[in-house]
Amino acid sequence: MFEEVLERCESTAAIIISGVCLLVSFMLTDQLPLDPAWLSVAICGAPIMYWGIHQLFNGEGISRITSALLITIAMVAAIAIGDLFAAGEVAFIMALGEKLEHFTVDRAKRGLEKLIRLTPTTARRLTSDGDETITIDRINVGDVLRVLPGETIPIDGTIVSGRTSIDQSIMTGESLPIDKTVGDGVFGGTINRFGSIDIRADRVGEDSSLQKLIRLVQEAESKKAPLQRIADVWASRLVPMALLIALATYFATGEIVRAVTVLVVFCPCALVLATPTAVMAAIGQATKHGVIVKSGEALELMGKVDVIAFDKTGTLTHGTLKVSDVVSFGSMSREEILETAAALESKSEHPIGKAIVQSVDKKIIPSTTEFEMKSGLGISAIIDGRRYFVGNEKFLNENGIDIGENKNLNALREQGKALVLLGDDRKCLGAIALSDVIRAEARSVIDELKELGTRSMLLTGDNRRTADYFAQQVGIGDVHSELMPEGKVAQLEAIRSSGAIVCMIGDGVNDAPALKTADVGIAPGAMGSDIAVDAADIALMTDDMSRIPYLKRLANATRKTIFLSISLSMLINFIAIVLSVEGLLTPTTGALVHNLGSCFVVMIAALLYDRNFEQKAHDVSGNALTERAA
Fold first, then answer.
1. For this structure, is 129 an active site residue?
2. Of the residues 528, 554, 580, which one is the last residue of a structural domain?
3. Which of 16, 31, 84, 449 could form a disulfide with 37 if both were Cys (CB 3.0 to 4.6 A apart)?
């Protein structure tokens, strides 16, 4: 019951009433039988006094002494000398500062809370008799759901019918709707903008991307940053210092008013507010851009990061094989080589075979007969009465086809590409090279990180030739290849032992130990494994690696904002203490100067939420094109 009354005293309406009472007290004190400032002290001072005394008796160690205790002492001292207005003002402006902090934090959380509100309550399921409206908890994996234009997609799934454009901004931060058609995946919580689509439910309930995101949000809100704890400890240590200076001032000057003023201005409110407001505003800013920061600690450490270690597959690359080169050794054209190889691979389940088939229009793939496959080697079949062989060099040699020395093949091997050879019963006709595809933004990301003073390195399980080739393409000079998960961990531990702060970026299950070992772990949440996302400190809700430089700039700005706020608060306190000792401030003016400084610090932090962080846009080759707001 008592705590409920205290909560009402901390409401916006109560603070407004307190402010009105102070104004009336300032203007009409001599004309009223009872000073209205008493009401301000009761409304705003009671919660502060309660929590200050409660912590004194229930806290542990130095945490017993808090800023609330110092404010309580200042209020009691001001009342003792008859300055009710000063006592009420101390309580009012402190309460106003806390309310402003809550407003900033709530405003920063809007992007996070919006995710939770996105979950629709019903869906339209297709049945043999038509469609039916069901609640979300009744959706099963494999159900086909119809989503009309303007509706929110209820679960993660795959489009089985229709074409549309989907607003994925809440999940990925992309500003424009993304075109989707049959076979494309969709996220629950995103909005179908134009066409009607039918989707097959792939992940439902707690397994959906939206629910995963909500869990990340809840985890982000539950952690507290180290600098915030440091500020709390520092604030508690100021209390005995304030008492000592106040007593020294009283004994030196004999004026109790000066001593009381010292107590009033010594409160470290701005110091305590500096870190949490900046961190929460920055987390809200990141969420708007498709980046979920799980803790303030991760954000602050990201601002200190010296080295960023990248996994290759699925991070700097798309993680899928595609045909990169087709070489002809004779009269067959490259198109004919690719179509013939696709015909032989059309019945194969091998990833390389599937990649070759996907690179050709299925309508023009010729039919085959007498299909034969040797696992791990290759395939042979007859097309139009002629037998062809497709596979590795060993397979062709076993069938009497000599490859010989070929500069083109050697060059492709040096690039770490997978080779598939095509031959007939007489000779090798050509070769198809397949490679993981480098993300278009990879080179520009590395360049931007270099401009920010951050070194990049590659940690991968790929062979040396492949790792070196990809590293050269994106501009990374520090390459560590053929690493098992424990090898990545060892490399990160070596970097940390040298005193550097390291960030690891990876999306695979095998990256989870490295993500945990690094000071900061980042996983692409859109395509990364659940284990990697859970192990990481920060999740990207898109596979666009340009979020990394954006995140680094945001983290740098957050640290600078915290440092600026703490420096300003300490400077304001120091000046106010000197003026109080000299008798140039009264308890009333001292409270105004100090607590307005607290509000000023909170407003500085609030600017992070809507601030634009410039980010370079690049073409595929990595050349800078324009400047745009992140």
1. no
2. 554
3. 84
